[in-house]
């Protein structure tokens, strides 16, 4: 049986809001994401990739993969590495500072991205060509949950801390 503390849910939101202006708050970092996380489930990933216009050959390969997450953060500096045998994607940013995000490891697009803490949420604003695109991360016990959204498609992934 899980204790009350282990059931406490922390949410981190990465959401796509075109034209939204966000400000960073690094004083309140609600959860420690540091660690190595191994994927244990991946639901509806192909539909998510279709929404991003990823070609069929890449979609078929990507749906067979079980990528891991290697996350480190120190103060307002966060690095999220998504690692697989096919492609790796690294996101290295400072909370509250806009940067150009190169998504060539994902869907070959670029966007202007700002990530900021809002209470218990870490919100990523991506200004680019795809509407409704975003991510939500949250930790429950020793699991990292990731919900990916794009153009109405939703993919849910779960990772276990190792």
TrEMBL record:
Annotated Pfam families: Lipocalin (PF00061)
Keyword set includes Transport: yes
Keywords of the record: Transport
A GO term for molecular function: lipid binding
Residue span, Cytosolic fatty-acid binding proteins domain: 35-52
Family to which this protein belongs: Belongs to the calycin superfamily. Fatty-acid binding protein (FABP) family.
Name of protein: Retinol binding protein 1, cellular, tandem duplicate 1
The species this protein was found in: Salmo trutta (Brown trout)
Species lineage: Eukaryota, Metazoa, Chordata, Craniata, Vertebrata
């Amino acid at each position: 049986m899980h204790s009350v503390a282990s059931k406490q849910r922390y949410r981190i939101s990465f959401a796509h809001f075109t034209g939204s202006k966000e400000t960073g708050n690094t004083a309140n970092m609600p959860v420690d994401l540091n660690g190595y996380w191994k994927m244990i489930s991946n639901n509806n990933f192909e539909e998510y990739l279709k929404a991003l216009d990823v070609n069929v050959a890449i979609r078929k390969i990507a749906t067979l993969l079980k990528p891991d997450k290697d996350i480190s953060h120190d103060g307002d500096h966060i690095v999220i590495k998504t690692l697989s045998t096919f492609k790796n994607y690294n996101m290295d940013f400072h909370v509250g500072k806009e940067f150009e995000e190169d998504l060539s490891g994902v869907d070959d697009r670029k966007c202007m991205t700002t990530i900021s803490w809002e209470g218990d949420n870490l919100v990523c604003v991506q200004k680019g060509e795809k509407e409704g695109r975003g991510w939500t991360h949250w930790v429950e016990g020793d699991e990292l949950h990731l919900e990916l959204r794009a153009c109405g498609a939703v993919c849910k992934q779960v990772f276990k801390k190792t």
